Structure prediction request, 260 residues.
Amino acid sequence: MDKNKGAAYTQGLITLVVLAVLTGAEYGIAVALPSLWVALIVIALIKAAIVIQFFMHIARVFREEGGHS
Amino acid sequence: MSADTAHMTDYKFKLSNNRLGLWLFILSDSFVFGGLLVTRYYLLGGHRPELDQMLGLIVTSVLLQSSFFMNRAETAIAHGDRQNFIVSTAITMILGIGFLVGVIGFEWRTAPFGPSDGAAGSVFYMMTGMHAFHVLTGVLFLFVVLRNGLRGRYSAERHWAVEACANYWHFVDVVWIFFYPALYLLGTPAG
Prediction:
């Protein structure tokens, strides 16, 4: 496995772990501290930002050159 | 300039336009889901539909994992790893179908209300129905990508369809990131 490919797979795995932890935190807050609804919205926004940045690669849209990598 | 280089330059030019087009589509589609979210908060406020929170967590986890495998599939084809691309795409499809089974097959059948039973019912079935329809179209898109992938139509240099499919799939995941707390976590169950 070349170095770039390994790094890309690792980044995907780290993103998944972070999203899983945030989802667990969301569930825990909703069950234990339901009055903290602001925290749930903030967590949802963070999760969406992570997916857009690391899975959807939004930065590619603003690149001049049109390659895939 | 050789014919191959000219084709590649042309492809890269089209690719940047295609990306912009896809993101504009995603933006326009997000207004539909934004409208549904506003409807939920306007009609239900501090209440939420009476649903099984554990089932909500399970289907959310399934969709989250599907996004991971979709990203893995795209990474694989971008590095010419065809076998990993095929396997990851197939897993994404299976998880997508699993999500549909969880929401339509279990949640819709076990929910203690129907679509016509007040605001909570209308909001729940409309939101999950519209989202499930997008998941279904995503699964069909994945099927096409998988079929073409098995025929060797994608390479590390040319795989726009895979990138488009991945972005669409992740968008569906982003929508659920907002729908999940709105339907399952925020507020007290509507009696």
In short: Chain A has one domain: 3-62. Chain A has two helices and no strands. The CA atoms of residues 18 and 24 of chain A lie 10 Å apart.
